[in-house]
Design a protein that fits this description.
Blueprint lengths: L13 H13 L16 H40 L7
């Protein structure tokens, strides 16, 4: 039976990724079959990807909660206006 070895490495920096590759090659992992990295996922990529999703859900929650907040604020201001003003003497 043929054995296929796979490895996935997630690193915070490019230097950490290089160190991991050197460590693997030093420990006997067959690096001749090494593929090229698919890509890098940076903080800017995360903001671009999730920014639109966050804006969408923020809008949905705003539409759902705005009537509840608005009605409770109206009740609050009505109570405040109906309470007689008390002045400290």
């Amino acid at each position: 039976m043929q054995q296929n070895d796979s490895l996935l490495c997630v690193s915070n920096t490019h230097a950490e990724a290089d160190a991991a590759i050197k460590s693997l090659s030093g420990s006997g992992f067959d690096m001749t079959k090494q593929e090229h990295p698919v890509g890098f996922y940076t903080a800017l990529d995360k903001m671009r990807a999730w920014g639109g999703v966050g804006a969408f859900w923020g809008g949905i929650w705003g539409l759902l909660l705005a009537p509840a907040v608005s009605s409770s604020m109206k009740r609050h201001w009505r109570r405040k206006k109906s309470t007689p003003n008390q002045m400290a003497v």
